[in-house]
Design a protein that fits this description.
The structure is a single chain. The strands form five sheets. Strands 1, 3, 4, 5 and 6 form a five-stranded mixed β-sheet that branches. Strands 2-14-15-16 form a four-stranded antiparallel β-sheet. A three-stranded antiparallel β-sheet has the order 9-10-11. 41% of the residues lie in helices and 18% in strands. α6 runs antiparallel to α7, α6 runs antiparallel to α16 and α14 runs parallel beside α16. By secondary structure, it is of the alpha+beta class. The protein has two domains: 101 residues, Beta Polymerase, domain 2, CATH 3.30.460; 316 residues, Orthogonal Bundle (Cytochrome-c3 Hydrogenase, chain B), CATH 1.10.645.10. The protein is globular, with a radius of gyration of 22 Å. The protein starts with a strand and ends with a helix.
C-alpha cells in the first residue's frame, strides 16, 4: 500500500498524501509499525461533518517520514490500534479527547490534558477515574497537584503495599493553555510562542517550529545560521543535562556533586546569554535564520569555557559514578527494559538508556549534523544509573560537536528575508532532537495558504507513562529519584 514518503523538514502537498478507506488505513498502520516504522504523530483535522485523520510514521533506519490519511465520521468509532500497537495508546487517547472519535476497546481511555474544546465535556479533573487495587494491605499515597517549591502542577497516585509501589498513575492537564490553537489564530510567525511551549526547551521547540514554517514558506537558511542553531541546541542539552545530574546527586544526598555541577551549569547558560542576550536562548532563532552571529573573536573564549565545563564534569562524574553509596541508589532502580520501552514508545535520552537507538540528530540529520556526525549513545540497562550516565556521556559529545561547529562558522550571513506567505494546501513535518528527546511539529495549510492546524508533540508526551512503569516494584521513597532521572515536562505535555 502506497504512502507519501518524505524527508524531515520538507514541504508535502496535501493532494500527494494518500487518503485510504478507514479499515485499510488502520490495517496498514499495524503492518508498517510491526515491520520497522514508528508513530510520531497521529491527529485529526475537522472537515465539515468528517474528520481527516493523519498518521505520520518515522522510518528511523532510512531517515524517512511516511504520511497517510483517512476520513473518519465525526464522533464515530473504530477498533483501537493500541491492542496491536501499545505505542499508539497516548495518541488514540488524545485523538478521542480532541475529536470524539472513539477507539473501541482502548484499555486506558482517560483524559490527556482537558483541552478547552474537548469533545467529551463530561470529563473533569475531579472525576478522573483513577485505577485502584482492592485489598486491606494496599494503601494509596497521593502527591500533588500542588507541590513544594516551583514544580509545576501534576497529581501522582501511588498504590503501595508498605513501601513497595504496585502501581503509579499520573494525572496531568492542570495548565492546558491551548498552544496548538494559538498558532493558527495569528497570521504571522510565532517563534516567541514556540519558545514558551516548554521553558527548559526554548531552543528545541523554537527550532522545530522555525523549520516547519521555513518549509511551508519556502525559506532557505544559510549554513552559518544552521551551525549557530545547532550549537545553541547542544548548549541547551549540556546545560539541562548538567542540572539534572546535580539534581540526581541531591536526591541521593551526594551534596558535593550537587554543588559542583550546579555551579558549572551557570557557565553554560551564561555562554548562551553571551551569544544572544538570554540564558535560555530566547530571541536567537527566527524563521529565516538567527538574529545573532557568533563573532570570530568570541569563539576561542567559548571553547575555553567549554573545556573548563568538560574537565569539571568529567572529574566530578568520575568521582560520583565510582562512589559505592551513589551506585547503590542508582543501579537497578527504576528499570524500564528495552522491550517495554519499545512497546510503549519511549523516545530520546530515556529510550537510549533502555537500549533503543533513537536519535533524530543521527537518524534524520540536517546538513550540519550529517557532516559533523554526533555519535548515538545507547546504554542497555534502563535504570536510573543509565539515565544519569547517558547525560554525562552526551555532555562530552555535545561539547566536542560544538568545538567542531565553531571551527566551521563563516561570515556568510545569519538571516534571510522571511515573509509569512505559506504554500497552499500543504503540510510540513519538523523533527528535532531536544535534550529530552524527539520534538515533533506539524503544520497544515488550506486552499488560501492559511495555517489551519498545528500539531505539537513534546517528548514528555511519550515518556510520562515510562516513568509510571519505572516506579513499579520500587520503594515509594525512590520515586523522586526516578522522577529526576526522566525529568519530564508538565507544560510540554499539557500544551
Amino acid at each position: 500500500m502506497n504512502v507519501s514518503e518524505n524527508k524531515n523538514v520538507h514541504l508535502i502537498k496535501l493532494n500527494d498524501i494518500p487518503c485510504f478507506d478507514r479499515d485499510d488505513f488502520l490495517a496498514q498502520l499495524i503492518i508498517r509499525c510491526r515491520m520497522d516504522k514508528r508513530v510520531v504523530a497521529y491527529f485529526g483535522v475537522p472537515e465539515k461533518s468528517r474528520v481527516k485523520v493523519y498518521a505520520v510514521l518515522a522510518d528511523d533506519e532510512r531517515g524517512g517520514v511516511h504520511v497517510s490519511s483517512a476520513f473518519f465520521p465525526e464522533k464515530g468509532s473504530y477498533s483501537c490500534l493500541t491492542h496491536h500497537l501499545p505505542s499508539f495508546h497516548m495518541f488514540e487517547r488524545e485523538l478521542f479527547e480532541q475529536t470524539g472519535i472513539l477507539p473501541e476497546g482502548h484499555p486506558w481511555l482517560k483524559p490527556v490534558r482537558y483541552c478547552h474544546d474537548r469533545a467529551d465535556r463530561k470529563s473533569s479533573m475531579a472525576g478522573y477515574p483513577f485505577y485502584t487495587i482492592p485489598g486491606e494491605e494496599v494503601h494509596e499515597v497521593a502527591v500533588g497537584p500542588v507541590h513544594a517549591g516551583v514544580i509545576e502542577p501534576g497529581h501522582f497516585r501511588f498504590m503501595c503495599n508498605g513501601e513497595k509501589v504496585y502501581h503509579l498513575e499520573i494525572q496531568l492537564g492542570y495548565q492546558h493553555r491551548g498552544v496548538e490553537e494559538l498558532f493558527p489564530a495569528h497570521a504571522r510567525f510565532m517563534p516567541h510562542l514556540a519558545e514558551s511551549i516548554a521553558g527548559d526547551t526554548a531552543i528545541g521547540h523554537n527550532l522545530a517550529y522555525c523549520q516547519a514554517m521555513e518549509a511551508l514558506a519556502d525559506i532557505e537558511v544559510t549554513e552559518n545560521a544552521m551551525l549557530i542553531r545547532d550549537i545553541a541546541l547542544e548548549l541547551e542539552r549540556i546545560a539541562v543535562h548538567i542540572n539534572d545530574l546535580a539534581a540526581i546527586a541531591s536526591d541521593v544526598a551526594y551534596l558535593l556533586g550537587n554543588a559542583v555541577l550546579g555551579a558549572v551549569r551557570t557557565l553554560v547558560i551564561n555562554t548562551t546569554q553571551a551569544v544572544c542576550g538570554n540564558r535560555f536562548g530566547k530571541g536567537l532563532i527566527r524563521p529565516g535564520g538567527v538574529l545573532f552571529n557568533i563573532d570570530k573573536a568570541d569563539r576561542p573564549e567559548i571553547k575555553k569555557t567549554l573545556k573548563r565545563v568538560k574537565d569539571t564534569v568529567r572529574d566530578m562524574c568520575g568521582i560520583m559514578f565510582s562512589s559505592p553509596t551513589v551506585l547503590s541508589r542508582l543501579e537497578k532502580t527504576g528499570v524500564v527494559e528495552m522491550e517495554t520501552a519499545h512497546r510503549i514508545g519511549l523516545v530520546g535520552m530515556s529510550a537510549r538508556a533502555s537500549g533503543l537507538g533513537l536519535d533524530i540528530r543521527s537518524d534524520f540529520p540536517d546538513k550540519v549534523y550529517g557532516e559533523l556526525q554526533i555519535p548515538k549513545i545507547v546504554l542497555p540497562n534502563g535504570d536510573v544509573y543509565s539515565r544519569a550516565r547517558i547525560r554525562f556521556l552526551e555532555i562530552l559529545s555535545s561539547i566536542e560537536f560544538i568545538e567542531k561547529a565553531l571551527d566551521g562558522l563563516r561570515e556568510d550571513g545569519t538571516m534571510r528575508e522571511a515573509e509569512y506567505k505559506l504554500e497552499k494546501e500543504s503540510m510540513a513535518i519538523s523533527l528535532t532532537e531536544g535534550w529530552r528527546g524527539e520534538i515533533v511539529h506539524v503544520g497544515l495549510t488550506d486552499e488560501d495558504g492559511k495555517l489551519v492546524r498545528y500539531k505539537v508533540k513534546d517528548p514528555s508526551f511519550n515518556n510520562w507513562f515510562g516513568l509510571s512503569l519505572a516506579v513499579r516494584n520500587n520503594g515509594v521513597s525512590d520515586f523522586p529519584l526516578c522522577n529526576k532521572s526522566f525529568n519530564l515536562s508538565y507544560c510540554g505535555h499539557d500544551l
